[in-house]
Specification:
2 domains, Rossmann fold, six-stranded mixed beta sheet, binds adenosine-5'-triphosphate, alpha/beta
Length: 283
């Protein structure tokens, strides 16, 4: 369980808190998606989980944040990094090796994983990300999507209980973004891993997340199942969250009394609703 209790944070260089009065519980094994407008505080929220704040970026930290009962202020970064694996926005800055295999070995060796376990961990992580064939490839020869999967594999190999990912699909086309999320969700489900992912593409998040969190100007505006959050598409649009048009259309049909079911996440579901509405109207 990841717990935020009355948490607020102001960077040392800042003039005001960037996060305020955050109380949130993310259960074990949950796939939690975080979205919101640029600068709303999404990355900072994840920094409170992996300890980047206050350990790397100091500031005024109020309330408390615990991961599996470990207080992220009191715990050392070493202890936290054994529990929380993070993939940052800038993948190239995270890569430390020139070849895929070395990139995965680096973390395993640094964390003191027993030698006999290492080959299985490397293979398992590459397999989970569907990139076994990339083992010997130079990292500079990889596409953006492949690099993203290597970065994920190098963290997954460490078998953290919690994965924190900051905009893992920012550089990827829609098909690669979908592929990364699909692999990630399957891995998390099979291993009981808690995933916290910051992502701009709310349609993609909504397909995979159990819990969708909307951050607005340092506060949590919504934290609920995707359908429940998407039911507020007009508010989301006003907050700068790019709600899918299919969701907005169906919410308008609902507001007009033409539909009474749950909010939809994609075009296919919206088409079904439109068919149902037209059939009822006798068109
Ligand atoms: N190290 C830092 N020192 C001071 N202020 C910071 C630091 N990092 C972020 N901020 C400020 O905190 C606020 C929230 O930033 P954060 O990166 O958490 O938002 P975000 O929602 O993830 O933004 P984006 O979508 O643009 O990545 C911004 O005003 C930002 O300028």
């Amino acid at each position: 369980m990841i717990k935020f209790q009355d948490f607020s944070f102001q960077y040392r260089e800042g003039v005001a808190p960037v996060l305020r009065d955050i109380t949130l519980a993310i259960p074990d094994g949950c796939f939690c998606g975080i979205t919101g407008a640029a600068g709303s505080g999404k990355s900072t929220l994840t920094y409170a989980i992996n300890g980047i704040i206050p350990h790397c970026y100091p500031g005024d930290f109020y309330g408390n944040v615990t991961v599996e009962g470990l207080d992220t202020v009191e715990a050392s970064l070493t202890d936290l990094s054994a529990l929380v694996g993070s993939v940052c926005q800038d993948i190239d800055s995270q890569m430390v090796s020139t070849v895929v295999e070395d990139e995965i070995l680096y973390g395993l060796e640094n964390f003191g994983v027993p030698k006999e376990e290492i080959p299985g961990r490397v293979h398992g992580a590459l397999e989970a990300m569907g990139i076994v064939e990339l083992l010997s490839r130079p990292i500079e020869s990889l596409s953006g999507g492949q690099k993203q999967k290597v970065a994920l594999a190098s963290i997954i190999a460490l078998q953290p209980k919690v994965l924190v990912l900051d905009e893992p699909t920012a550089e990827l086309d829609p098909a690669s973004s979908e592929a990364v999320f699909r692999l990630l969700a399957r891995y998390a489900r099979e291993n009981g891993t808690t995933v916290v992912v910051v992502e701009q593409k709310i349609a993609l998040l909504s397909e995979y997340a159990d819990l969708l969190v909307i951050v607005d100007d340092g506060r949590i505006r919504f934290a609920d199942a995707p359908e429940a959050v998407l039911a507020h598409s007009d508010e989301l649009l006003a907050l700068g969250v790019n709600c899918p048009r299919s969701t907005t259309l169906v919410n308008r049909l609902k507001a007009a009394g033409l539909y009474s079911g749950p909010a939809v996440r994609n075009v296919a579901a919206a088409v079904d609703v439109c068919r149902e509405v037209l059939a009822r109207a006798g068109a």
